[in-house]
Amino acid sequence: MKIFIDSASPKEIKEAMGLGLIDGVTTNPTLIARENRPSRELLQEICSLVAGPVSAEVIGLVATDMLTEARELSGIAGNIVIKIPLIKEGLKAVKVLSAEGIKTNVTLCFSPSQALLAAKAGADYISPFIGRLDDISQRGMDLIKTIKTIYNNYGFNTKIIVASIRNPMHVVEAAEIGADISTIPFAVIEQLIKHPLTDLGVQRFLEDYKKIPKK
Ligand code: E4P
């Protein structure tokens, strides 16, 4: 499973890239707004830090506006992927962008029918938001399983990005299901690494090492 970082913070992205395990980045308007900088220069900086795909979202709600924004955003760097919301106009825009060879990540997916249509429109990535489904007492991970079955049934090439991840178990379950990608907030990436027994074990080994006679 590939791992993306779900962040627009160059500081977090640099630190996560230092692990050597990060394959890409996803941003959204909320994450960009947190950085309090013009989005174009921020995205330019992020793209210079990462060789893999960097998702940047359009704001327009009609296909023609989305297309103008998408073409403008894709001029920022070769690794930009255009994030398009899963609405009727978004699907129209994805179809056109797919024909133009501009990569798309269809976002705000909450149902299997939406995911099926995004794949038919030619989306490169689909982003089902599992945490937001869990938040309203629906099983987000069930959506991932269903989408995977549908995509396998018809051989769609659209990659599933498990999004809106809230905790390490979401990542483990995504990997069990065989999702293509998890996009993970920085804090959860750190949680994936940590285990109290590992820390305790390291501490004990260091203490015992000191007891070994040096000569
Ligand atoms: C994914 O592409 C989104 O940026 C993100 O995962 C949304 O997560 P949230 O529900 O925590 O805002």
Report what the structure shows:
There is one protein chain. The chain has 11 helices and 8 strands. It has one domain: TIM Barrel (Alpha-Beta Barrel), CATH 3.20.20. Helix content is about 55%, strand content about 15%. Helix 1 runs parallel beside helix 3 and helix 8 (about 140-155) runs parallel beside helix 9. By secondary structure, it is of the alpha/beta class. An 8-stranded parallel barrel has the order 1-2-3-4-5-6-7-8, surrounded by 7 helices. It has helices spanning about 10-15, 30-35, 40-50, 65-75, 90-100, 110-120, 130-135, 140-155, 170-175, 185-195, 195-210, and strands at about 1-5, 25, 55, 80-85, 105-110, 125-130, 160, 180-185.
Poorly predicted tracts of residues: none
Estimated share of beta-strand residues: 15-25%
The rounded distance between the terminal residues' Cα atoms is: 48 Å
DSSP helical segment count: 11
What is the CATH superfamily label?
Aldolase class I
Number of domains: 1
Radius of gyration: 20 Å
Tell me about the biggest sheet?
8 strands, parallel, barrel
| Estimated helix fraction | 40-55%
| Tertiary shape | globular
**Number of beta-strand segments:** 8
Question: What secondary-structure arrangement, pairings included, does this model have?
Answer:
Blueprint: E1 2-6, H1 10-17, E2 24-26, H2 29-34, H3 39-49, E3 54-57, H4 63-74, E4 80-85, H5 88-100, E5 104-109, H6 112-121, E6 125-128, H7 130-135, H8 140-154, E7 159-162, H9 168-177, E8 181-184, H10 186-193, H11 196-211
Parallel strand pairs: 1-2, 1-8, 2-3, 3-4, 4-5, 5-6, 6-7, 7-8
Helix pairs in contact: 1-3, 4-5, 6-8, 8-9
Bound molecules: erythose-4-phosphate (E4P).
Erythose-4-phosphate (E4P) binds near residues 26, 127, 132 and 164.
